[in-house]
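Regression test attached.
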Amino acid sequence: MSELTEERFRERAEAPGNDAGDGTSAAAGGSISVQPDEFHHARDIGELEKVFELESLSVSYAGVPAVKEVSMDIYKNEVTALIGPSGCGKSTLIRCLNRMNDLVPTAEVTGRLLYHGEDLYGPKVDPVQVRKLIGMVFQKPNPFPKSIYENVAFGPRILGMKGDMDEIVEKALRGAALWDEVKDRLDSNAFGMSGGQQQRLCIARCIAVEPDVILMDEPCSALDPISTGKIEDLMMELKREFSIVIVTHNMQQAARVSDRTAFLMVELDATEQNRWGRIVEYDATEKIFTNPGDPRTEDYVSGKVG
Amino acid sequence: MQASDIAASGPAAMKPRLEAASPRYGEKITIALLAACAAISVITTTAIVISLLVPSVEFFGDVPIKDFLFGTDWGPTFTPPTFGVLPIVVGTLSITLWSLVFAIPIGIASALYLSEYASRRVRRIVKPVLEVLAGVPTVAFGFFALVFITPQIQKFWPGFLGDEPGIFSALAGGLAIGLLIVPIIATVSEDAMSAVPNGLREGAYALGATKSKVAARVVLPAALSGVVAGIILAASRAIGETMVVLLAAGNTPNLTLNPTEPIQAMTAFIATTATGDIATGSITYKTVFAVAMLLFVMTLLMNVLSIRIVRRYREVYE
Ligand SMILES: Nc1ncnc2c1ncn2[C@@H]1O[C@H](COP(=O)(O)OP(=O)(O)OP(=O)(O)O)[C@@H](O)[C@H]1O
Ligand SMILES: [Mg+2]
């Protein structure tokens, strides 16, 4: 197996063959405020580049399974949503994608997870390198107790990124639709911002290191509807440049922002003692919400259960 | 069913009893006892301050406060006596300085190791050991300095630093006190570091930070005010330390910051002068109180500073 290096990833991520993907994504993201009933028309998977390929991926904590045998492909420049009831393993699954689960000593991942065709859990893969390319935004905004500027500059600094730091910071803050709100107080502490601003700062911090993928675990669950709307609009912009995976409890949000949706559910064994999450259905968001293939999906998205 | 029951019994029938069933004297006695215990420490502190204050004020009637604080000649038991306290203040500060130079890096490094790197099992063993180390009688540290640290310093002294230290030196005292206060800095800092929300670490990891970057750039800065509070606590401890300085640093008033020379610390002066045969009301007697008062003020300032910082530290994550 060839070594998993940053250069290699970048090469793949920026390969010229993906231009077709960019063109269509611009069309899909053309209208920025998407109405709840208006779906992104997921493109035919034949024309898409795969970012992740999950093959029978299972995760257990201290030997107890949390998610079992998840197989799905995640595509470039799309927003992929993971939905499902509490405890079905959405966070567990998304944290596999940038090896965040390595920080939990009891977590064990089995199965295969390919990232641009490379085994993400291969023996030579460095999780630190992986996380440079696959950023994450968390449920609770977690800015560092530093100034707004220093929060954004943090990543580029520790990674030794070259270039004018002021420019890098401004670009990232503009990218997170935050620049106009904070440009006059870059030196003030990030804790003085509203929750929604803090979350957009965390997004700015994430995109400042120019990742390939952004993972978001319930990024709006601590926010009011207006801040949520801003972040949803932002995601429509961001997916032109990045691939996004989002966990959400909010059905409307999944319907509004995502191109593809995976529905996970808790499954019990015969004794009803052990429970784990399993994928029920994974398809274009429009299909999941209007014409699901599985009755359990229909019950969940229509609010009958969960 | 139930509703009609209540309606049938009517308001007159259900007169609830609202007074206490007994006067509850036990409760009142408990409160009084607890308050009395709490008062003991307050009363003692006040009593100490007053008992220090009275002879000190008398002392400053005999010796101008300016001569005391800024004089450079300390010989209150000589004839004629001199009352310039600076040499022993500098002695105390020099010992404190050297102990901190030694203890701050080691204490912070231990804290970072325990909080960020050590497994839960290691932490469970090492932390109590550190706490026990903080409770070893200080005379043991003093003796250790005399029979082990000083000979080692003399043995490995690099010639280019000048003359090697003698049997008593500020350096040996500083190192021994440093050992004594490492556990204070380490445990207080470790508490502050463990209190840093995990979300901050995850945020940094998600940007591709290595473990050491997370420790140095996120955890340490976020815990900094707690760390500083630990350092100040350790400094107060070093200022007040007596046995170690007597045994390791000597008892010679010496206005110098040179660590190879013997010095006299304020505490050492008090301990060796305030013996049974000191005449109550004599100028020597009052001098002891004046030095003790000054020492009290110095540690009080350190503690006030420490409380301020700890309070600020609490606000960091709001
Ligand atoms: N660090 C951990 N150690 C042990 N078990 C864990 C850990 N994290 C999650 N689990 C378990 O894994 C299962 C899935 O949890 P997970 O947090 O992934 O669910 P989720 O779908 O994100 O739920 P929610 O919607 O409430 O966030 C749960 O049974 C949970 O108890
Ligand atoms: Mg979750």
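Expected vs. actual: identical. The interface with chain B takes residues 98, 100, 103, 128-129, 131-133, 135-136, 138, 140, 142-146, 154-155, 158-159, 191, 202, 205-206, 209 of chain A (CB under 8 Å).
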